[in-house]
Predict the 3D structure of the following.
Amino acid sequence: MIDLHLHRVTGEARRTRDLACDDMRAYADVMTDSPGLLDVIHQYGASWRIVHDAEIGVWTAVNRPTPTALHFICAHNLASLAVKLAATGDRGPG
């Protein structure tokens, strides 16, 4: 399992996003297959923990709005995950 949520990327500053992009270069193979990954993390990373499980080929997003609540979204590809995240209406701060 590859955890792609290295930094919480918000709309605070482009510098924050650039630092996260630098750190994610270690996952170049996933990024090459998924060019929209950084955009998805930028839009939803403040609220959702986004993970790609290459072993079973699934993208997941997990949100814990309160200590007792768990929101979980699963998709076969990043584009589908982005559509499902957009449907939640939760883009986080920024």
